[in-house]
Amino acid sequence: MFKECCPELIPVMEKLAAENPHIDALIKRHAELNQLIDDVEAGREHMEEIELDKLKKEKLHIKDEVYQAVLEYKKAHTL
């Protein structure tokens, strides 16, 4: 998902993931959620709507947290 929405941030995200296990785990969880949500929406998996909404909110929260970490990293590493 990150690659589709913000490919320009991928190099920074890769550096962060290599340096920070928490960010690495968030990026992996985001990918898992993205796949699961896609599967449910495509009819390959079944899930109650309320559960799907919870997963979407979790995915958005993760995206926001990773994006914030990227911004902080870029700010700290810019002259």
TrEMBL record:
The keyword Coiled coil applies. InterPro entries: DUF465, DUF465_sf. It comes from the Bacteria. Keywords: Coiled coil. Residues 23-53 form a coiled coil. This is DUF465 domain-containing protein.
